[in-house]
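Before surveying the methods themselves, let us examine one representative protein, pairing a chain with its fold in token form.
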Amino acid sequence: MHLVYVYGTLKTGFPNHYLISDPENGIANFLYEASTVEKFALVVGSPFHVPFLLQNTNHGKGNVITGELYEVDDEMLKTLDKLENHPTLYLRSKIQVKRNTESDVIECDAYLLTNYKLELLTLPMLTSYNITTSSSYISPQERSSSETLKSVKLPN
């Protein structure tokens, strides 16, 4: 089993939560609401209004981010990797989180945007992806992954 931290459209009540809650995609057990230990930049970017957790590159920007921690099996991890276009768009990376009501730190996986355009750092930085910020989101089925890549990633 794998521990996975979600901060955007996979959270309960958001557009892609159906993937993590569908047993046909594998097993996903919600553990608890959690916050990152490290500060990250959480922005909504691209023409498709996608939430991105930017890999910390010591730009001195960001916030502690609130999200949800899940325990998932290998099948669900494959489903999440496909949604997140890992490793092309997002990179599944180890981060540390803690339960919002406790101080114990847990290491888990999260999907981070790496090698991104620096202009993403000029966007408003959120502490939590919420209903208001998700209202303009365009799902992967309605957009091209190459267009999303071009709008946020630096060329290789």
